[in-house]
Amino acid sequence: METVDETTPLFDSGLIDSLAVLELMAFIEEATGRPIPRRMIHMKHFATVDRICAAFWHCEVEHADL
């Protein structure tokens, strides 16, 4: 099994494909308690664990008062 860290390229390494990203999106929505906005559904936001956290967990803190 390959070691994955926060900077591992998830698509380029083959760890995630177009079907697996749907499962990842469902996990993110469940974990954050909110849907992913359509404008955020772009591969650049799912490229690495760092980018996922920056895009979706930052967003959760930023909009916590909503």
Identify the overall geometry. Answer: globular
Q: What is the CATH class? A: Mainly Alpha
Taking all residues together, what is the mean pLDDT? Answer: 86
Sheet with the most strands? none
Query: So, the CATH homologous superfamily?
Result: ACP-like
Query: Stretches where pLDDT falls below 50 for ≥5 residues?
Result: 60-66
The helix/strand order is HH
CATH architecture: Orthogonal Bundle
Quaternary class: single chain
What is the domain total for the residues?
Answer: 1
Output the structural class: mainly alpha
Bin the strand percentage.
Answer: under 5%
Give the number of DSSP strands: 0
Q: What is the terminal separation in angstroms? A: 40 Å
CATH topology description: Non-ribosomal Peptide Synthetase Peptidyl Carrier Protein, Chain A
Assign a percent range to the helix content.
40-55%
Note the total helix count. Answer: 2
What is the CA-atom radius of gyration, in angstroms? 12 Å
